[in-house]
Fold:
Amino acid sequence: MSAFTIALLDGDGIGPEIMSEAVKILRLAESRNSGNSSNCLELELQHGAFGASAWFCHGDPFPEATRELCDRAGAILKGPIGLDHERTEQIPVDMRPERGALLPLRQRFDTFANFRPVRLAGGLRHFSPLKPAVIGAGIDIMLIRELVGGLYFGAKETGRRADGRRYVRESLEYDDAQIERIARVAFETARSRKGVLHNIHKSNVLKSSVLWNEVLGEVGREFADVELRHVLVDAAATYLCLDPGQFDVMVMENMFGDILSDQAGGILGSLGLMPSACLGPDKAYYEPSHGSAPDIAGRNVANPYSMIGSVAMLLEQSLGLKAEADHVWRAMRAVFDQGYVTADLARQGSKARTIGTSAFGDLVAEHYATAPGPA
Ligand code: IPM
Ligand code: MG
Structure:
C-alpha cells in the first residue's frame, strides 16, 4: 500500500505548537495500524506554509507550493490562522489569511460540509459556564454548517452613490443543488445518531431561508425515519444556552453556522474544545474552530484538544479508522478526567493540575497507546 499523504498547515500563533501534538497522535496511529499486511498504514506528513506567517515569509498566505501539496495530499490538517491586530494591519486586505488563504482553501476543495462537534463529557463539565441542571447528562451536538456558499462567497460591491453616500452590497446566494447536498449529509448524520434533525433558518425574513427550508423538506421525504424540526436562528441561539440537550444534529447555512458554532464553543466554556472536519466531494481538511491566540503563542500553554480532536476526525473520515478515532477521543477525556488542564483552560479555584501543551499531548498519547489494538 502506498503512503497516505497528509498536508500539515501549521498556521499562525499557537498553530505550530498544537500541530506538534497532533503529529504525535498521527504517528502513534500509524504505528498502531501498521502491524500486519492487511492493515498497513503508512503516513507521509508534509508541512506547508499557510496563513499570515506564509505571507510574511513568501509574500502569499496560500503559496503555490502549498496549493500543490494540498492537491497531492489525501487529506489536510490545518492549524489556526491570523496574527495580532498590528501585524495584520501590515498585510494588504485581500492577502490577510482569512480572505487570502482560508476561503480559497475551502473553495479549492469545495469543502461544503463542515462538522463541528459540540461535546461536553464527564471531566469537561466544569469548563462550561452553564449550570449543572442545564447541562443535564452532558452536551453532545453535531453542528453541520454549509461552508462554501452564502454571504461568504456572494458578490460584493462597494462604492459611492450619486447622492454622495458610501454603500456596500453583499449577496447571499444558494441554489437548490447546494442546499440539497448539505441537507443529504445532515439527514444521513441524523439517521446515524438519534433520528432528529434541527434545521436552523430565518424564513420569517430571508428568502434564502424559504428556499433552504423547501429543499430540506424535499430531501426529508427520502428520510422518513428522521424527524425534521425547524427552528429560527435567533431562537436557536437562546435554546443553546437554556436547553442544549434538545439538540442532536443541527444544520444551517454558512453565516449562521459561523455564529452559532462560536456560541456552541461558549457553552462548552472554550473554543479550544471545538475541533472540526470540512468535507468536500474528493478531499477533506480538518481544523480547530478557534483562532490562533497570538497572545499565548509559543508559551506552551494552549490546549491541543481541538487540534487532536481534528486528528480523530481525520482518522475516522479520511482513513476509515473509526475505532482509532474513538480511542483518541477517549484518551483526551481520560487526561481531563485525571484532573489535568492547560493554563488557557484553567479556572480559578479549580483543583485541576496545570500542565503544558506538550505534556498534555504526551498524556493523550500515553492513554491512546494503551487502548486495545486494531483487530
Ligand atoms: C471559522 C472562522 C472563519 C469563518 C474565519 C477565520 C474566516 O471564524 O472557521 O468559524 O468565519 O468561517
Ligand atoms: Mg468562526
